[in-house]
Design a protein that fits this description.
This protein is α/β, with parallel strands linked by helices and 365 residues long. It has 11 helices and 16 strands. About 4% of the residues have low confidence.
Length: 365
């Protein structure tokens, strides 16, 4: 069976990456691409690298144009997806790459985003440890999927195995991330100009203000066996229960690379836990995974190693002097962080091979 697909926000970075991956997918046909201010223009005027899709023209983003497809991807700014998802009730599968359907807590939404709160959907991070299992089980047969925030999924994948195994204390997490500006989208902003970021590293959203913080706390709360299925399936409580004792200091730093996230996350080791138990927690979680890989002891990833790949590479260190675990994780924010997670989740939901149209191989140099 060939599935018809519409992609909104197709002139942006996330929408373009979704299209790049889907263009190589044998089970889908990209029929419709939409935009707002760029509607009426050829897709290749904004995505000149997508030569196989040169026949497509950007149409207006309206519920009527998006309707009538088997699958709709929404790659819109935060707060804009809900107005369309409400009108796509007859669409068999809708995948939102924005934040509108990620959070289970309306209180957290109001605190970090504001505006209308929309129902949580199934979270699109298949490898995430959830209540002793994996999130992919919730994705099988799903009809509404919330693709993750790139920073949030990177940190969650970094630490969830340790939380699930009870070897780290999630009450004192510190994460510092080097991130590329493509995560901020194509909007023209002074702080994203080349003259502002080249040769410089610039922190932003400092002091607990970044919007991905509640998403991380929600995912790590779901990693605990006793609280598992709620937040992971999108059917959990709307009060943010279970996250109160998960505390994270989260600091992203904008660096001059177009793509990539390098997240360094640390957490205290629980008293009495042995070194072998710590590493075993991550090995058990990811030993059979294709796209999330723990590197050999003493090895740590570079963002260059995952460029263009749907891969998260993790390096783990045990710092007994500080009594903390350090996990360094590299992802391509546009692939594993966004579009790759969305396509991987689509494959699972439709019962297709999970790896279809996705690669573990990056591009080098």
């Amino acid at each position: 069976m060939t599935y018809s697909v519409a992609v909104s926000g197709a002139s942006g970075y996330a929408g373009g990456e979704i299209l790049r991956l889907l263009a190589a997918h044998p089970d889908v046909e990209i029929r419709t691409v939409t935009a707002h201010s760029n509607a009426g223009q050829p897709l290749v005027a904004h995505q000149p690298h997508l030569r196989s899709l040169a026949h497509l023209t950007l149409q207006d983003t309206t519920p009527e144009i998006l309707a009538g497809h088997d699958i709709v991807f929404l790659a819109l700014p935060h707060g804009q997806s809900g107005q369309y998802t409400d009108a796509l009730g007859d669409t068999p599968l809708v995948i939102d790459a924005g934040a509108d359907h990620r959070l289970t807590s309306s209180t957290e939404w109001d605190a970090f985003y504001g505006g209308a709160f929309h129902e949580p959907w199934t979270y699109g991070v298949p490898e995430l440890v959830v209540g002793g299992g994996k999130q992919r089980e919730a994705l099988r047969g799903a009809t509404r999927i919330a693709a993750p925030g790139c920073n949030a999924s990177t940190v969650s994948l970094s630490l969830a195995p340790g939380v699930a195994a009870g070897v780290i204390d999630p009450g004192d997490i510190v994460s510092v991330l080097a991130v590329g500006p493509s995560g901020a989208g194509k909007s023209l902003k002074t702080n994203l100009l080349a003259s502002e970021i080249l040769g410089s590293a610039n922190p932003y959203a400092v002091g607990g203000t970044h919007r991905h913080i509640p998403e991380i706390r929600q995912a790590l709360a779901a990693a605990r066996p006793s609280t598992g299925s709620g937040p992971s399936t999108g059917s959990g409580p709307s009060t943010g229960s279970g996250t109160q004792d998960i505390r994270i200091s989260f600091t992203p730093v904008l660096v001059p690379m177009s793509r990539g996230i390098l997240a360094t996350s640390t957490a205290p080791i629980v008293d009495g836990v042995r070194d072998a138990e710590i590493r075993q927690a991550w090995e058990s979680a990811y030993g059979d995974e294709t796209f999330v890989q723990l590197l050999p002891e003493g090895s740590f990833p570079r963002t260059a190693d995952v460029l263009g790949a749907n891969t998260a590479l993790l390096g783990l260190a045990i710092d007994r002097a500080a009594n903390r675990v350090t996990v360094v994780t590299a992802v391509d924010n546009l692939v594993k962080g966004t579009a790759g997670a969305a396509v991987q989740s689509m494959n699972i939901a439709l019962g297709l091979p999970e790896t279809r149209a996705l690669s573990v191989n990056g591009v080098a140099p």
